[in-house]
Design brief:
With about 400 residues, this protein is of the alpha/beta class. The protein has ten helices and 17 strands. The protein binds alpha-L-sorbopyranose.
Amino acid sequence: MTELRVAMIGHAFMGAAHSQAWRTAPRFFDLPSTPVLRVLCGRDAARAAEAAERLGWEQSSDDWRSVIARDDVDVVDICTPGDSHGEIAVAALAAGKHVICEKPLANTVVEAEQMSAAAEQAAAHGVRAMVGFTYRRVPAVALARQLVAEGRIGEVRHVRAQYLQDWIVDPEVPLSWRLEKEKAGSGALGDIGAHIVDLTQHITGLAINEVCGHLETFIKERPVAAQGSAGKLGGLGSSTSRGPVTVDDAAVFLARFEGSNALGTYEATRFATGRKNAIRIEINGSRGSLAFDFEDMNVLELFDASEPAETAGFRRILVTEAEHPYVAAWWPPGHGLGYEHGFTHQVVDFVHAVSAGEQPTPSFLEGLAVQRVLEAIENSSHKRTWQEVHP
Ligand code: SOE
């Protein structure tokens, strides 16, 4: 059994999610190589050391450049804010390390293009890169994609997607990196809109080629965060001074798809009071419909229009059977999976692809495609017109 020695850069919310995935994957799945949690890296040496201890890493470092130069590291897992994804990923690929990078791939299309070009060059030498759109690996989502591909709902007419959160409804929630354009690129659009762009393209197999959108920032100034006060999403503790919010709080957009006359309607917001992490996707086709809500993530709803009208209706499929994607490795039927399992499945698929010398998905090219959609939505909002998504 070979080892796959991992270095993780960043150790906040995503770092914790990725750490549990690296630890858990080989315990529940048969893997061709065993992940080794070699080194965790963060900007502050003491905090990185504490996180390494808590999250199960052998060593810690405060210098990502020296980490990616190490001979005893095979994979670099990037869990930092978007403004450093490009620099770290390009350098890691050039150093011959496989890369997993958190979503969205980058803060701009230009950076995403550079990353995608670096990934293409690296692939020629057998070095692989993947972007972490983890919700693809929720079993109900993976099943939805299978059912669409099998033609169970026929031709797709409507793609309806919402990603609803409410963690900054309170105007006193302080500023954090997710509310800074320089660090995050955009707000709800890139953070959670990126997920529903990726998910709907993944489930339907359709590529968005035109968009019309509007972005809104409801709360334009917020308290400056007090030092060392960040909660899971950077939302606790504030000082008395205030600073500008430089990203969108919410994004709505319409979309058209290449080679299809399907209509897409999308909403990504951090202001859906009461909704915590509601990723709602409904696909209406000529022969049926599918509906998913992450707040009930073990369920996929299916409507089959060929059934007799008197008994037809949305059926709740409890996606916990061994026949369902990824589920056989876990618990008996009905016992359910959670948020963290998507990250474990991501590691499982990554390790299989890398060990087999294959391209893991989603590739950086797919990450770039999402970035192009996001940019077109921003342009549309500024210009107040439809915008093509340029390949
Ligand atoms: C914060 O909005 C966030 O953590 C996103 O950054 C993640 O991608 C999503 O999984 C949950 O919400």
